[in-house]
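Curious: why these numbers?
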Amino acid sequence: MTVFRAAVLQMRSRLEPQANAEALEGLVREAVAEGASYLQSPEMTGMVHRDRAELMKRLRSEDDDILVATAGRLAKEHAVYLHLGSTAIAAGDGKVANRAFLFAPDGSRVATYDKIHMFDVDLDNGESWRESRTYRPGNRAALADLQFSDGAARLGFAICYDMRFPHLFREEALAGAEILTAPAAFTRQTGEAHWHVLLRARAIENGAYVVAAAQGGRHDDGRETFGHSLIVDPWGRVVAEVDGHEPGIAVATIDTAEVAAARAKIPNLRNARAFAVGEATAQIRVTGSLEAAE
């Protein structure tokens, strides 16, 4: 089994990518000093900006993006896995990709993931969000293997609103993911109601660690995000948390033996069965097995 230290980096990203790159670097150094070898930043690390026109002015391709370059450099400099939770990337078709990046300890790019589910909602406090007007949704899940001296651990990707779609996490767990991720910029209102319970539920139902770095506090564009970056173990226990909405880090030990233990106690990945819904003749697809997920 594989044991390593993981860190969530809580930020309050501003309008200008340069300032956010500098903030990321400071948090990375702090987490590395605490022994972390896998570090995750929040959704929209590079820029939090609700004005589409201003966002587009600052937008770059991934080859020219300062956060992508900074994350790759820091991963290599500190010989760690650095998961850029997401940043806005020019998609080349007048829209934007909300894209995550994982960099290896040699600075190479291991994986990317584009947020699949768009946050198109109207909240009862007057907030209204239509991510689909600006962002192009992804259409594939992503997995990556973290290689350490004592073994490997498989990582599954998601971003923020994706956490409300449990089938994404289930498919990743069935494909072998032991660590599920959900970097986020959760609103204060929805965070107060659902943040902890959703992340703990995704951990429990898949017998997996969940790592979720978050944005926190009042941003330059006026929005408020919830913070409370979390690491949850496979039994649903919060093992690390940035308590509140101020920038900071939290670090916990990840031990994949805990994944195997949780899945042995509650083998729901193996026990799932196909079933019909009402009069429908089509059946719900059940894929994978516990063996495939270990």
